[in-house]
Design a protein that fits this description.
Elements (H helix, E strand, L loop, with lengths): L2 E2 L11 H8 L39 E6 L8 E7 L2 E7 L12 H4 L2 H4 L9 E3 L5 E3 L2 H18 L5 E5 L5 H13 L2 E4 L6 H10 L7 E2 L6 E5 L10 H13 L7 E5 L5 H5 L2 E3 L6 H12 L21 H8 L3 H13 L3 E5 L9 H15 L6 E2 L11 H12 L5 E5 L3 H4 L6 H7 L2 E6 L11 E4 L8 E4 L6 E7 L12 H12 L1 H6 L5 H16 L5 H11 L1 E5 L32 E6 L13 H5 L13 E3 L1 H6 L6 E6 L4 E8 L7 E5 L39 E10 L24
Parallel strand pairs: 1-20, 7-8, 7-15, 10-11, 10-13, 11-12, 15-16, 16-17, 21-25, 22-24
Antiparallel strand pairs: 2-3, 3-4, 5-6, 5-17, 9-14, 18-19, 19-20, 21-26, 22-25, 23-24, 23-26
Helix pairs in contact: 1-18, 4-16, 5-16, 6-12, 9-10, 9-12, 10-11, 13-15
Length: 740
């Protein structure tokens, strides 16, 4: 049962810690769900007769648990089928507002992580010769906790750095409390963080969260680089909405226009694809906004937006973006006539050196169109602040100066996901002690002194607030669906144990016995703040049944938009690392729906899953426009050397007409140096080509601002593809005789 809250209580953006307090004024309720058994973790293996089974062991009967999928940051709710005490199958939780019963391939494959033969089964200690030996939790904690205690006592907590992601979860908050009590530095890392989107939303909409895009309600969607049907932010939720958008509930089938230099999965599904020159998306959006200003009804744009200084005309913008001017004029007219238009910005458009200015112009177009409050709605979840390149540089410099005593890496793999040019590998080598908290021997974990083996999300407690949002505020509970398979602990459990053994302020900040007690404590605090009079244990059990706690804040959300947003400035000319005469092509790295930045590579089902557009599986490839390929005498399977100022990789060519002639594209996710048998040594990692260049405003990594060169090596390989060449009975009507 979704709850309702008064709009009057939503007048401020909220951090995760504040959200439960906020809900006190919201009148939140919970409903019944699908739980059919009590969650019960047992510390010991026990042989029992099936005549007297444990409570969650019902021979021949399914038990379903509603919990949280942690394979990406979208925050989908899932229902896990358990038979004889083992998780067997995953379905989407139909009552969850993010995914509404849907799941993606990565979520379906997450059981591969639980049962993976390469999972770490106990703490591991480096043998000093590049290998690891099994250890015990007592030995591991004793190697770390005294060092933490000594740093506390000496007031030298600043010599500790915590490298983590950026979720809104209890586990992440435990890390925050740990870092605050110690006085440590925290870096929130990732290749594709939403830092530039957050900055643009703050500038134009006036709130500190990611906007919720109501695709289902729109009759026209124009996306500048956001592959919302592929791997952008919340693809399952967006795909659900896209289905409703296309069904045309208002009697009109929605129309989709995709603007991007490399055709994504969303571009494949679009009615129009506009292959704009990289980095010009902001100029296009601002030109459209200037053209439409005053045509979308009174008071659509903020006060003072009588004109937009620096905006190009449609003809000038079309020339800059290398697009036919008539198509841009036609798009302007289509936007002007749309009743509920929506404009999105993200992907490569949000990852150039001018990314924040670009997305600010995209958001401004929404304001001009009157989309704010209708198809663009605020998300009350206050996103964390992601680290800029300057902070990473500070960490690297500190390590070089011998000022880093301890590095704790939790839930991220920066040595794979981030460019080598940042110097993180050297920084970890120079740190006195590196501790990785991971379920797998990832590239980063393999460079650590200790790997503290962590649970999968099927085995422990946590929660999450969805950053992409749904127009409703949802807190999803993660609960164990089966007992631990191995001698592992959750990140929260490890943090709690380290805090207790270290004593002092750390122990005072985190006094809880384990992750379950900590999570329940968080929710019990919320219960108190909410003023709920019902028994907490009974109420918490209801949340376990439903899997999610929802506050419907849909009404009155338009009031959250700032009326005083400044008119956007014209974005600067796009800048790229590398001289165009030496490096003639712009590199367009992209995420596939399965591999993402690399987390999916350890899962065999994902390795086997063909890319939906090229049908390539198991490896890497370089997408080259056929016109460019002809000029370089390149055929499918020719191995080329791709080089930038930062590095070089080799991969086979795939002639792909959906990429501009001056752009080459490569999928992310492969090229691991470790991470288990399914990931290690497979394909190449285009992140190693990226320059250490940041967005001009936020300093976030500009992963779409690197130029590269191609060189034919003379080698050829046969790529693993499911499409292949159709049977031609020797006539070769589809290509030359040696083509494949």
């Amino acid at each position: 049962m979704a709850a309702t809250a008064s709009p009057a209580t939503t007048d401020a953006m909220l951090s995760r810690r504040d959200i439960f307090k906020y809900l006190a004024g919201g009148g939140v309720g919970v409903g019944t769900g699908l739980l059919l058994g009590e969650v019960n973790q047992r510390p010991l293996e026990t042989l029992l007769s099936t005549h007297i089974p444990p409570e969650d062991f019902s021979p021949g009967m399914d038990t379903w648990y509603n919990t949280l999928c942690r394979m990406c940051p979208a925050g989908c709710g899932i229902s896990v089928r358990v038979r004889e005490g083992r998780a067997k199958k995953i379905e989407g939780n139909p009552g969850h507002p993010v995914n509404r019963g849907g799941t993606c391939a990565l979520g379906q494959a997450s059981l591969n992580a639980l049962y993976n033969p390469d999972r770490l089964r106990s703490p591991m200690r480096s043998d000093g010769e590049g290998g690891f030996v099994e250890s015990s939790w007592d030995e591991a904690l004793e190697a770390i906790a005294p060092r933490l205690g000594a740093m506390q006592s000496a007031g030298m907590g600043g010599r500790t750095w915590i490298l983590t992601g950026g979720s809104l979860s209890s586990g992440e908050e435990a890390l925050d409390k740990f870092g605050e009590a110690l006085g440590a530095n925290i870096l929130r890392l990732g290749l594709d963080t939403p830092a530039t989107e957050l900055a643009a939303a703050k500038a134009i909409y006036g709130f500190n969260g990611l906007p919720h895009y109501d695709i289902a309600k729109a009759d026209l969607v124009v996306s500048f680089g956001a592959d919302f049907l592929g791997a952008w932010r919340s693809p399952v939720g967006y795909s659900k909405a896209y289905g409703e958008f296309r069904e045309g509930g208002g009697g009109h089938r929605g129309y989709l226009v995709q603007v991007e230099s490399r055709m994504s999965l969303t571009g494949v599904n679009a009615d129009e694809w506009l292959p704009a020159r990289p980095g010009t998306e902001g100029a296009l959006a601002l030109a459209l906004a200037a053209e439409l200003l005053g045509r979308s009804g009174p008071d659509a744009a903020p006060a003072g937006w009588e004109d937009l200084p620096g905006a190009l005309s449609l003809d000038e913008a079309a020339a800059l973006a290398d697009l036919p001017a008539e198509r841009l004029h036609a798009l302007a007219e289509r936007l002007a006539s749309a009743k509920t238009p929506l404009v999105l910005g993200g992907g490569a458009a949000g990852a150039g050196a001018n990314a924040t200015e670009t997305l600010t112009c995209v958001a401004a177009l929404n304001r001009v169109l009157g989309a704010a409050g209708t198809t663009v709605r605020p998300n009350l979840a206050h996103a964390p602040r992601y680290s800029a390149l300057s902070e990473i540089e500070e960490f690297v410099a500190g390590a070089a100066n011998g000022e880093v005593s301890l590095v704790i890496v939790a839930g991220v793999d920066p040595l794979h996901d981030l460019p080598d040019s940042l110097g993180l590998r050297g920084a970890l080598d120079r740190a006195e002690l590196v501790v990785a908290l991971d379920s797998f021997p990832s590239d980063t974990a393999s460079a650590a002194d200790w790997i503290l083996a962590t649970d999968t999300f099927f085995e422990t407690w946590d929660d999450d607030i969805s950053l992409p949002g749904t127009g409703k505020l949802s807190v999803t509970l993660q609960q164990p669906v089966q007992k631990r398979l191995y001698d592992t602990l959750s990140v929260t459990d490890i943090v709690l144990r380290l805090a207790q053994r270290s004593g002092g302020a750390l122990a005072e900040a985190l006094p809880h016995e384990d992750a379950e007690a900590y999570t329940r404590s968080e929710w019990a605090t919320a219960w108190t703040n909410l003023g709920i009079q019902d028994d907490f244990d009974a109420g918490f059990r209801q949340v376990q049944q439903q899997g999610v706690w929802v506050a419907d804040l849909a009404e009155g959300m338009a009031d959250q938009f700032s009326a005083e947003a400044a008119a956007p400035a014209a974005p600067p000319e796009p800048q790229f690392a590398g001289d165009a005469s030496e490096y003639p092509f712009v590199l367009h790295p992209f995420q596939t729906p399965g591999l993402r930045e690399g987390k999916g590579a350890r899962l065999p089902w994902i390795q086997e899953l063909p890319d939906p557009q090229t049908s390539v599986a198991y490896g890497s490839w370089v997408e080259v426009n056929p016109a460019t390929a002809d000029g370089l005498d390149l055929r499918d399977g020719d191995v080329v050397e791709v080089s930038s100022q930062a590095g070089t990789v080799t991969a086979p060519v795939l002639r792909y007409p959906g990429v501009r002639p001056d752009v080459i594209a490569m999928p992310l996710g492969q090229g691991h140096q470790a991470n288990g048998r399914y990931a290690q040594g497979r394909g190449v990692n285009p992140a190693s080509l990226l320059a250490a260049r940041g967005d001009d405003i936020t300093g976030a990594l500009a992963w779409a601002a690197t130029r590269v060169a191609l060189r034919k090596t003379g080698e050829r390989v046969r790529m693993t593809k499911t499409s292949g060449v159709s049977r031609t009975l020797g006539r070769q009507i589809l290509g030359p005789a040696d083509e494949h």
